[in-house]
From TrEMBL:
Family matches, as CDD domains: UDP_G4E_1_SDR_e
Cofactor(s) named in the record: NAD(+)
Descriptive protein name: UDP-glucose 4-epimerase
Organism field: Solimonas marina
Residues passing through the membrane, by range: none
Transcription regulation among keywords: no
Assembly and oligomerization: Homodimer.
UniProt xrefs under InterPro entries: Epimerase_deHydtase (IPR001509), NAD(P)-bd_dom_sf (IPR036291), UDP_G4E (IPR005886)
Amino acid sequence: MNVLVAGGAGYIGSHMCKRLAEAGHRVVVLDNLSTGHRAAVQWGELVQASLGDTAVVKDALKRYQIDAVMHFAASSLVGESMKDPYRYYENNVIATLHLLQAMKDVGIDRFVFSSTAAVFGEPERDLIDEAHSCTPINPYGNSKLAVELILDDAARAYGLKATALRYFNAAGACSSGVIGESHSPETHLIPKILRRAAGESIEVRVFGNDYKTRDGTCIRDYVHVCDLADAHLHALDYISAQPGFHRFNLGNGAGYTVLEVLNAAEAIIGRPLAIPYGPRRAGDPAILVASSEKARRVLGWKPQRADIRQIVGDAWAWHQAPAY
Ligand code: UDP
């Protein structure tokens, strides 16, 4: 298949491009490089444009005879979305609408969308399945949920074949070390710990140790970025055979506490990291873990790299000598 990867110069998008190429697909990256990296585009041509550059996007869809679009291009910082919601609706909703319209205009009907656990809001139970209510608590989650609603309507009205994959905590890197996570600013736990361990002056604290969890720190479902890429391949096959709009949660179904992540990092790096406790971060629920039973059953997806030591170890291979 010829697959356009929007946001293919970013963290998850670049891992997707690698996986698609390995599976024999032809990849074309659409990215404006606002947060992505030119050096991460290694498996296919780069069309440097924004999703809203309709003429360029339509031209690329036609010129490369694209069969399906995978969409990773989004703003994804919760705190930033609280301060500047218009930007999130613009970048995540309106831009996606332009992309979908361009696809419709040129007759492309397969779409795999990066969604997020943030669509659920405050968890009502420890294991979050697809039946959990969707009441986001920040503009980022709202913007992703808005696109899910658009996709549902588009599937009904235009016959779009679409899927939304809700990631829990994407982490790790491709084990070859040629691509990895590189955000500025970095807010996520694992890259912050590892960048500090690699010598950067990044302040890291454990955000709260008085949660009702086994060691008092928050539990999250960390899922390896290469397992996420595998899930997208399965999803692409699935929508090709099953029209309509489908939602899947992607995680390992088991969470790790912040301290367990820290212990794994210390074991891999081989020295204590002396990360102090700090206050809770606003908006952090105690436990966020996915039930990905549906993805396993319906898509036939099985995460291969669920162990936190592998996730942190692969990330560490990247952070010791990041190429960008
Ligand atoms: N966290 C932390 N210190 C940090 C960054 C994150 O203790 O410097 C915690 C955070 O409170 C959460 C977990 O690590 O419980 C994962 O946070 P991250 O920002 O990586 O992802 P999120 O779960 O917010 O999507």
